[in-house]
């Protein structure tokens, strides 16, 4: 087949697309080898084959072999190990949405580009079927642990900060309160999941809730063990709470295609609002009881 004549700028674009498709082929193939569900493995292998074919399509125009982006392959392998393959492929597909725009601009000049665009869109539809990863089934349990810890502990630490005015004492009381609450919440989640009788395992649901709660407890109380000024500690704690909410909601928005802003501002507003109210309550109680530490 005779190659269509293209200018140097277009050729550079096509080389970038070719390398991207080849890179994603290696990522999908690696993921397919490591998922346990046969249905998920089949879909990932089919997408990997499509990506390899797409790379071959661009090569017909560039006439040049390229190597995959080893750093990108490594990055998505790491992401999939830490955050799960669903998050990794969803994040990668978000990058492909931008590529589809440049594909559309080339469709009038190069034969076969419309087929590439259609197949990329099909990838998105197929990936929706991959959302049966175990860790995503327990998202509700993680949300329960995170949300309760953020709301309860930020409020408690804000109240303790003004009432106690001693960073070590605040950390001690915060840790005792938080760990006790984590165990209580994990127990409640176990009983709740068992009563509901859904597909989730009660023990595993309680573990997810408890771990999410305890991790949040340690992150929020850590500033009181590091800094000496209790107001600085409270400020760092609130910033940490907002950061946790930001990261978690970004994860959920990518993995489950949920709106990021709505859930982020809802959780952040609830946590900071309760903290502000608790800080005020701590001030009032301190004045009313006449406690001076």
Topology:
Layout: H1 8-32, H2 38-62, H3 70-83, H4 85-106, H5 113-128, H6 134-137, H7 139-164, H8 167-196, H9 202-226, H10 230-255, H11 260-289
Helix pairs in contact: 1-2, 1-3, 1-4, 2-5, 3-4, 4-5, 4-10, 7-8, 7-9, 7-10, 7-11, 8-9, 9-10, 10-11
Notes on the protein architecture:
The chain has 293 residues and is an all-alpha fold. It folds into 2 domains: 8-132, Ferritin (Up-down Bundle), CATH 1.20.1260; 135-289, no CATH class. It is 83% helix and 0% strand. The chain contains 11 helices and no strands. Helix 10 (230-255) packs antiparallel against helix 11 (260-289). The longest helix is centred in the middle third of the chain and has 30 residues, at 167-196. It is elongated, with a radius of gyration of 25 Å. It starts with 7 loop residues before the first helix and ends with a helix.
Radius of gyration using CA atoms only:
25 Å
Main sheet summary? none
Q: Let me know the number of strands.
A: 0
**What is the mean predicted local confidence, pLDDT?**
78
Question: Helix-strand pattern, N to C?
Answer: HHHHHHHHHHH
Shape: elongated
* Uncertain stretches of 5 or more adjacent residues: none
Count of discrete alpha- or pi-helical segments spanning 4 or more residues:
11
Residues in helices, as a percent range: over 70%
Percent strand equals: under 5%
Q: Ends: how far apart?
A: 85 Å
User: Could you say which structural class the secondary elements and strand pairing correspond to?
Assistant: mainly alpha
Number of domains: 2
């Amino acid at each position: 087949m005779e190659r269509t004549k293209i200018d140097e700028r277009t050729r550079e674009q096509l080389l970038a697309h070719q390398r991207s498709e080849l890179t994603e082929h290696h990522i999908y193939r690696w993921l397919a080898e490591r998922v346990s569900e046969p249905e998920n493995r089949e879909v990932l292998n089919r997408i990997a084959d499509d990506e390899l074919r797409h790379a071959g399509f661009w090569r017909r125009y560039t006439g040049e072999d390229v190597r995959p982006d080893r750093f990108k392959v490594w990055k998505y392998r790491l992401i999939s190990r830490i955050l799960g393959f669903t998050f990794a492929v969803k994040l990668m597909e978000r990058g492909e949405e931008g590529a589809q725009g440049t594909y559309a601009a080339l469709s009038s000049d190069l034969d076969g580009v419309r087929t590439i665009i259609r197949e990329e869109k099909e990838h998105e539809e197929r990936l929706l079927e991959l959302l049966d990863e175990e860790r995503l089934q327990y998202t509700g349990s993680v949300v329960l642990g995170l949300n309760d810890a953020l709301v309860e502990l930020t409020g408690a630490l804000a109240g303790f900060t003004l009432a106690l005015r001693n960073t070590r004492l605040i950390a001690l009381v915060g840790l005792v309160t938080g760990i006790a609450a984590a165990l209580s919440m994990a127990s409640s989640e176990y009983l709740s999941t068992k009563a509901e009788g859904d597909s989730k395992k009660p023990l595993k649901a309680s573990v997810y809730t408890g771990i999410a709660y305890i991790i949040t407890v340690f992150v929020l109380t850590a500033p009181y063990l590091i800094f000496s000024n209790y107001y600085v500690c409270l400020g760092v704690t609130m910033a940490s709470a907002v950061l946790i909410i930001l990261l978690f909601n970004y994860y959920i928005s990518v993995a489950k295609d949920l709106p990021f802003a709505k859930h982020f501002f809802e959780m952040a507003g609830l946590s900071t609002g309760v903290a502000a109210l608790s800080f005020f309550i701590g001030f009032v109680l301190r004045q009313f009881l006449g406690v001076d530490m």
